[in-house]
Design a protein that fits this description.
Layout: H1 12-26, H2 30-40, H3 46-60, H4 69-78, H5 84-97
Helix pairs in contact: 1-3, 2-4, 3-5, 4-5
């Protein structure tokens, strides 16, 4: 890891996406967060997707709030990924959202 939490083995684009998703969450706008998660669900490159999920996990520790049901559905779909790292990160987000999106 670099000092800002970026993984050295991730390409620049993945680390950039991690920072973008983290910052989007930190802005505190639930609609913007939901759009960001919906867009993240369209990312097909595994390292970039994982980095984006990690950005959400990093930021979510400080101020929990919840995206839309549609965004939650994207996280749930990612939790079923064949990639164990992506599935694990998505499941961590799911657990953090439990009880907050009913």
């Amino acid at each position: 890891y670099h000092g800002d939490g970026a993984k050295k083995q991730w390409p620049f684009s993945a680390n950039l996406l991690r920072r973008i998703t983290r910052r989007t969450y930190e802005m505190g706008d639930e609609a913007l967060l939901s759009r960001s998660i919906l867009d993240l669900g369209k990312v097909s490159e595994g390292q970039a997707l994982l980095a984006g999920l990690h950005g959400l996990l990093d930021a979510q520790q400080n101020k929990p709030f919840v995206p839309s049901q549609e965004a939650i559905a994207v996280i749930s779909k990612l939790a079923q990924s064949d990639d164990p790292a992506i599935a694990t990160a998505a499941r961590q987000l799911q657990r953090r959202f439990i009880g907050r999106f009913d």
